[in-house]
Amino acid sequence: MAQRKMGKEMTVTSDGYHSKPTYVYKVVLLGSMAVGKSSLAFRYAKNSFRETMPTVGCSFFKQMIHLETANIMFEIWDTAGQEKYHSICHLYYRGARAALLVYDISRKETFNRAKLWLRELEKDFLHDEIVIILVGNKTDLATEREVTSEEGKEFARSKGLLHAETSAKSNHQVTDVFMTMPVQSQSWKKSRVDLRAPNSNQIKKCCKS
Amino acid sequence: MSLKSERRGIHVDQSELLCKKGCGYYGNPAWQGFCSKCWREEYHKARQKQIQEDWELAERLQREEEEAFASSHSTQGAQSLTFSKFEEKKTNEKTRKVTTVKKFFSASSRTGAKKVAQEKNLKQGQLGRERNADNILRDLKEIFTPSWELASPTEEIQEAKAPSPSINRQASIETDRVSKEFIEFLKTYHKPGQDIYKQCKMFLEAMHHKRELSIEEQSECAQDFYQNVAEKLQTRWKVSPERVEKAMDQIEKYIMTRLYKYVFCPETTDDEKKDLVVQRRIRALHWVTPQMLCVPVNEEIPEVSDMVVKAITDIIEMDSKRVPRDKLACITKCSKHIFNAIKITKNEPASADDFLPTLIYIVLKGNPPRLQSNIQYITRFCNPSRLMTGEDGYYFTNLCCAVAFIEKLDAQSLNLSQEDFDRYMSGQTSPKKQESENWSPDVCLGVKQMYKNLDLLSQLNERQERIVSEAKKLERDLIDWTDGITKEVQDIVEKYPLEIKPKNQALAAIDSENVENDKLPPPLQPQVYAG
């Protein structure tokens, strides 16, 4: 994966001198209906923290991750997978750092639909603006598999995406998928310095006006 | 006995009971012996007179005082003169008011003074009457105009756009409250607090001069301001992130309560037009049912319908808030209720696949006022980090999606054929009519149940009638059947009458033959043997 530049919409805060900065990292979950988007998020959030689940819905999650160089506040935004909402979903992408493109390995059409989602994403983002992970979910249904692992990998490679196969049901590789994103972000330290420059310019601009 | 005597005691002559004016109606001692109509006339006259009398007195006093004042203080400037006049008027008004009130309650003592008053009245002439009218008018104004109108506007420039003084008043009360809270809050920040306050003041001042700019430019100014203040707090004052967050919330609240009326749905944009378009669109889509949107909410469950009502209330309430963050809080509250409704219906936490359709349904059902304006306002003036991230941002994005969907909604997205969709849109038919529920969906459950029961009863009634008629038919059939059978039998009987034929000859012949050739031995006779 190429190194990503951090946009200014990234919230950077710093806990005094000695503690690590905290980044907000927004992830959108995309994919057809019933491929297990919510379940993935649910599984991830539940396993990381043994806290009580949100009593109401499971379409928005917040998760703090402590890395060596930074704290990362994960925000997982679930989206509606129905085809009819396809055209309006671009509203969710704003400010997202990563997208999980989820398909169901036991349903071929969800894989094809994931390809369409990708096309939508490419309209809104430059290639290095966002991490896209193609996730084949429901590996527990291996006997009913319609999309082979190779097929997924091959497509991901051709588009420069990451690929993983998971099972939210049996908790296979779920956490790994989520951790892939920040692990690649060791370069954030450097990008933090970059952040200062445009902001200090803006202060000047404001004083003039 | 006692009853009789009492009756005798209050007995009065018939003529005494009649109206004093002789109109033929009965009078009443409480109305000084007039009938109600005459009394009202008299009373009105007397009151008018009294008012004029008072006014006259006041005039005279004023004149006298003015003269005295002019002679003694001729050196003083005009200003003090007008002031004393003002003072005098005020006291006059006061006394007049008091006497008027008194007169209301001492009606009986009036008749004597009447003539004098009339004379005075004539002297007073036309001028007095006009003045009197003026005075009453002013008096009324004073009564009906809220006190704040008379008081000079303390804070901000009164705005022509504001619809009514009461709203204005409310707004300024809120603004004051918010200011006080803001100052209190900033005290906890010590030195940075002062700096923040200064910056906010400067920003508001700057915005005041930028009112002519387009809303996008104003929005940009606000966004820049947020960013700069946050930066400054972090880098220069080394405030911790949590406290920066808190401060930003307060700053937003402070400046947005002040800017609200200038930047919410401004005339320079077509926000209002868009509002109307969306509103009309939602109204045209009133026939959309939860089933068409695949909403996983069952409103038959009382708890669920309760949640739905709450969600609708919240989304409508959004319009009444002034601070973008408060508006967002309303959306979040609404969303939580939706999640609850889904959870109760489905018995599992809702996912986004369930949530968005339900939100769309809620928006359609609630038709929140000025939806576009609110969305635009939040987008323009909310702290941008709050819109792209965070829970509030998530729900806000969902609302934006819902509105976008409603704008684009077509037959396909409701799983309808184009013809059906067109027919529903034009109002020719309604899908609800086809179902048994052709009453409005917000009727309470009990009434619905009642209607259902009534329906059932009428169906039962119909069946009962049918059974009765069937029974009657059966009875008739039975009668007809017996008649028919009787007739048939008779026919047959007629066709084949019962004839008793004479004895068969052959048989007789055989018998006779037998008789003739009786060669058979005689039958055995029982014999008795002795032994």
Descriptive account of the structure:
The complex is a heterodimer of chains A (209) and B (531). Chain A is of the alpha/beta class. Chain A is built from 6 helices and 7 strands. In chain A, strand 3 and strand 4 form a beta hairpin. Mean pLDDT of chain A is 74; it is low at 1-18, 48-52 and 186-209. In chain B, 72% of the residues lie in helices and 0% in strands. Chain B is built from 22 helices and no strands. Chain B has helices at 2-9, 14-17, 36-72, 78-105, 114-144, 147-150, 165-187, 190-209, 215-235, 241-263, 271-284, 290-293, 302-317, 324-346, 352-366, 371-381, 384-388, 390-408, 418-425, 431-434, 445-495, 505-516. The termini of chain B are far apart. The interface between A and B is large, with 47 and 45 residues.
List the SSEs and their pairings.
The complex is a heterodimer of chains A (209) and B (531).
Chain A: E1 12-14, E2 21-31, H1 37-48, E3 60-66, E4 71-78, H2 90-93, E5 98-104, H3 108-124, E6 131-137, H4 149-159, E7 162-165, H5 174-183, H6 188-208
Parallel strand pairs in A: 2-4, 2-5, 5-6, 6-7
Antiparallel strand pairs in A: 1-2, 3-4
Chain B: H1 2-9, H2 14-17, H3 36-72, H4 78-105, H5 114-144, H6 147-150, H7 165-187, H8 190-209, H9 215-235, H10 241-263, H11 271-284, H12 290-293, H13 302-317, H14 324-346, H15 352-366, H16 371-381, H17 384-388, H18 390-408, H19 418-425, H20 431-434, H21 445-495, H22 505-516
Helix pairs in contact in B: 3-4, 3-5, 7-8, 7-10, 8-9, 8-10, 9-10, 11-16, 13-14, 13-15, 14-15, 14-16, 14-18, 15-18
Give the structural class of chain B: mainly alpha
Element order, helices and strands of chain B? HHHHHHHHHHHHHHHHHHHHHH
Write down how many β-strands of chain A occur, each being a DSSP E stretch of 2 or more residues.
7
Which structural class is indicated by helix and strand composition of chain A? Answer: alpha/beta
CATH class of the domain at 270-426 in chain B: Mainly Alpha
Average of the residue pLDDT scores of chain A: 74
